Amino acid sequence: MTQARLGQQVVVLGAGMVGIACALSLRQRGLDVTVIDPLGPGAATSHGNAGVLARSSLMPFNHPRLWSQLPGLLRGRSPGFRYHPLGLLDQWRWGLSFLAHAREQAFRDTTTALDALIRHSGTVHRAWMAAAGVAHRRRDEGWLFLYRSETGFGAGAFGRETLARFGVATAVLAPHELHDLEPHLQPIFRKALWVKDASSVDSPGEVVRAYARWLVELGGRVMTSEATRLHRDGDGWSVDTAGGGTQRADHVVIALGPWSRDFLRQQLGLKLPMGFERGYHRHLNPVNGATLNRPVYDTAAGYVLAPMAQGLRLTTGVELNAQHAPLRPGQLNAAERAAREALAMGERTAEPDWLGSRPTLPDSRPMVGECPGRPGVWLALGHQHVGFSTGPGTGELLSQLMLGEPTTIDPRPFRPQRFLRA
User: Fold this and answer.
1) pLDDT tens digit string along 194-242?
2) Using only C-alpha atoms, what is the Rg of the chain?
3) Which residues are registered as beta bridge partners of 340?
4) Whole-prediction pTM
């Protein structure tokens, strides 16, 4: 493993939650850090999530019960899951490996690893939000899983058992108890699960941008440009940018989210087994004083509704499709119809519908570590649905590995050698 020294130059490619977290952690340790991203901080995948920081996010989509659910999912009737056949063909190798990891031991390994990463990230997030001046954007009221029927509640037993095994604080709510927490929800839910070990923010993109501003105050740099070429340069690396400039670095961190797959193939000839769980959001205006105190997940309809600075953010479940396929609004429209049954809402806001790709590796764990056979190139990618919940912990772990420090959490479940070879 190639270790960094204080004062060395590091270029971080990607200014989402993960990239900015890596840059912040490295800068705090005395490295000279430059972030390069064509859109700027928090403008792509990190902009569009539900803003939830929850220990319940340790549950991957490819859990052992997925096999029994698969026939129904493939019929395309699940509101929280859509797929496009041509998009699946583009990802078939990933899909087979993803299904192969839907077994008990892989599930236990993934949940254990993600729980450690999420818990550590939550601690770091709290400290960073205070230091970056955005603690006021954080709410600590948890979030809610809503069930429209007793059958639906029963179907969620495996998830609740898993959360209990990891000591995640939850409470099952009867309709009157749910009403006490969220009085504006319509009385259509038979039960709810209150995940108490959770926080949320009212603008995830603004949190990322606040972290980026703090990085600059600490002496880091953020460049709004596209990295067009990565090549070996003596003992280090050089990154050419679209503007014609070149950044020399002792170390390069690739934290490009869903763009990592193409970049690694084009620049380093590596085949990264990454799939794209696409998701949408739309903002709606509340009416008649209707509001939410925390994000809610309607398990039957497959959407999350979260109170945001921009209004009520409606986010969808999964659409398996090629990363760059056109927007398909059917899932989002269905989610809006279902959400209007749950809460009184007015017109959509002027902000356009948003689409982002959640970059997922076959075992639903990110890669964090040095790239095999490319000394000085570090990977922080593949965070599926939980990049916002795991970004700070990823940044800390990568920095500890790069500088040879003792690691706060076990790095082995995240090693890139799982899927990449020298």
Assistant:
1) 999 999 999 999 999 999 999 999 999 999 999 999 999 999 999 999 9
2) 21
3) none
4) 0.97
